[in-house]
Amino acid sequence: MEARRAENLIKYSEEIQNRPKNVWLKSEKQKQDIKERSKEELKDISARFDSQINKVHKEVQQGKRKRDAKEARKKRQKGESFFERDEERGEDKRLKEQRQNNNESTRGGAQKGS
Question: Considering the entire predicted model, what is its pTM?
């Protein structure tokens, strides 16, 4: 094996010498430059990622609002009363009674005047 290596070194010595030398070691300054560039690239990537996440989040929220509005319209079309919707929202019973009393008094007053 060593004999073959020696033969190849002699036979291809010109090619071997004409090759550029590999530089594996980097200076401290080059290492620092690479670190700084990679940090900047990471900041850019994270900023793009955050903006994309915000865009997707907004689209999801808009979809939820549209879906909720559509469900509310369907309920109203089925004949759900305003009082049932208030119940879902947890509105106080006294306020409902006051509204009912006000509605009855205004209806009665309008009928008496006719």
Answer: 0.34
